[in-house]
């Protein structure tokens, strides 16, 4: 009997430890950001950070490659996990590769933060969408979180507009079924279909840096790709997300983590050149490039 009591007690302690949250800024604007423990408090490569165009290194990579992002997803699932709205259940592997990435990364889930977590040139945007990818060489997210090349998150910031965003609208239309506290962690189907690339503006300019998950465990396993191009959203649309409950009769009005120290990390601003015929030739291989180089040289002589 005592033994069972000890187990019950430990389980309680565990569940208490897994509860974490954001400051209630409605109640108190100055409420300190809570300590989440572990790496969240003592890590040196934490996210989010402020991204400056001026302070960034300039980088050149091959173009990012997106596979199946344009495929209409007709049976996506949505869940209110008490910290965000999260989408999953993609019909086929959505694969991201190229750029500075060392491997193929497949989309695991998509979720939102209201206000944005990253700031660009000290500006905070009303919404940030995170498209979370796992390195295909690891079988699952918890394994991937142990390795610095384990996860890539594509971050998309949204700016205020008077024109509703259609892709965001197709998510909002199904929000009612997961908003209440009683529905936490119970998945619902998204009625409208949606292609993931409808959530992503042009990818020709982005910041990339080595950072962490922005929620516990704050694992330092994330290659961040934060696009500088933003998408429009109305404040009315963002306000719909703010109505989801995280406790009985308590709405999640903000779910962004405070900015973290850069700690001398390299933040690279990648400006993709227009894909010219010269770029295409460079993918044909060094041998041919050398030959062409020689030919051009000869021609100039
Ligand atoms: Zn996130």
UniProtKB/TrEMBL annotation:
Cofactor requirement: Zn(2+)
Catalysed conversion reaction: hydrogencarbonate + H(+) = CO2 + H2O
GO molecular function terms listed in the Swiss-Prot or TrEMBL record: carbonate dehydratase activity; zinc ion binding
Signal sequence segment: 1-17
Domain spans labelled Alpha-carbonic anhydrase: 18-271
SUPFAM superfamilies assigned: Carbonic anhydrase
GO cellular component labels: cytoplasm
A Pfam family assignment: Carb_anhydrase
Assigned keywords, A-Z: Lyase, Metal-binding, Signal, Zinc
PROSITE patterns xrefs: ALPHA_CA_1, ALPHA_CA_2
Enzyme Commission numbers on file: 4.2.1.1
Biological role stated in the UniProt entry: Reversible hydration of carbon dioxide.
Protein family per UniProt: Belongs to the alpha-carbonic anhydrase family.
Protein name in UniProt: Carbonic anhydrase
Provenance organism: Drosophila virilis
Taxonomic path: Eukaryota, Metazoa, Ecdysozoa, Arthropoda, Hexapoda
Gene: Dvir\GJ10442
């Amino acid at each position: 009997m005592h033994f069972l009591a000890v187990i019950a007690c430990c389980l309680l302690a565990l569940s208490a430890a897994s509860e974490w949250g954001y400051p209630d800024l409605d109640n108190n604007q100055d409420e300190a950001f809570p300590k989440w423990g572990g790496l969240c408090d003592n890590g040196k490569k934490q996210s989010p950070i402020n991204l400056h165009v001026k302070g960034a290194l300039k980088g050149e990579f091959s173009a990012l490659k997106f596979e199946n992002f344009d495929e209409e997803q007709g049976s996506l699932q949505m869940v209110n996990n008490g910290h965000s709205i999260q989408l999953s259940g993609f019909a086929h592997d959505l694969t991201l590769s190229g750029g500075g990435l060392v491997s193929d990364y497949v989309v695991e889930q998509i979720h939102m933060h209201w206000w944005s977590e990253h700031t660009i040139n000290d500006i905070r945007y009303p919404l940030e969408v995170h498209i979370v990818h796992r390195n295909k060489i690891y079988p699952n997210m918890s394994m991937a979180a142990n390795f610095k090349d384990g996860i890539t998150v594509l971050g998309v910031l949204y700016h205020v507009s008077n024109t509703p965003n259609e892709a965001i609208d197709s998510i909002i239309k199904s929000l009612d079924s997961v908003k209440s506290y009683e529905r936490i962690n119970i998945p619902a189907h998204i009625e409208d279909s949606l292609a993931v690339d409808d959530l992503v503006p042009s990818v020709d300019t982005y910041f990339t840096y080595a950072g962490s998950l922005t929620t516990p465990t704050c694992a330092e396993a994330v290659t961040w790709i934060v696009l500088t191009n933003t998408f429009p959203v109305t404040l009315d649309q963002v306000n719909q997300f703010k109505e989801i409950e995280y406790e009985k009769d308590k709405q999640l009005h903000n779910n962004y983590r405070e900015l973290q120290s850069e700690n001398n990390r390299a933040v690279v601003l990648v400006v993709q050149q227009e894909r010219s015929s010269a770029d295409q030739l460079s993918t044909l291989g060094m041998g041919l490039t050398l030959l062409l180089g020689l030919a051009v040289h000869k021609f100039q002589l």
